[in-house]
């Protein structure tokens, strides 16, 4: 999958439902549309995509859909045309403004994911309810597999977010928002993988193993408390 602008090969603009692609209501303001686009672009841009290499082709396809949705909804005139016709292909060329899909896409590809946009998004996203919801959903979906969870939760970094994520997950288990997952991978394996990825030394790995368990394996107290609550409910 090419991640350089010069290597891009584009087909015709994809046929999409712009509001669905950007996950916004038809009443969304232009500022809300811009914010939704930046979020979607950061998630699906092939150059920033956190999934496995083989998933980058899918990311490229998705990013084209995101770019096309923004081309329509990001311009008030094109948006009005689309709202009236329901067709993206009829909404791109407006009056004397001839839309060039290749030029537009290359511009979005080059500028959608910059240091400034990533920094701004990271500041707003980390610690938000949206991030928390994504973490809890990923934890349940991937049964506590933290490698997959970090791939799913945007702009997450195990070297930075491990303790914070563990706290969020344990709190959610206490509130019975999620069910504790007994992942087969031990916390030592998680820390070893973490050290390998981020170049930690052997001594730091040993030190890390003495820490509390990772979110892959919530504390036994969480399991016991959950079990006791379920027992009480069944007796009630």
Automatic annotation (TrEMBL):
Domain J as annotated: residue spans: 17-86
Entry GO MF terms: heat shock protein binding
CDD domains from the UniProt entry: DnaJ
Span list, region Disordered: 198-236
PROSITE patterns recorded: DNAJ_1 (PS00636), DNAJ_2 (PS50076)
Biased segments, Basic residues type: 227-236
Gene Ontology cellular component terms for the protein in this record: cytoplasm; nucleus
Name this protein carries in UniProt: J domain-containing protein
Organism of origin: Aureobasidium uvarum
Upper classification of the organism: Eukaryota, Fungi, Dikarya, Ascomycota, Pezizomycotina
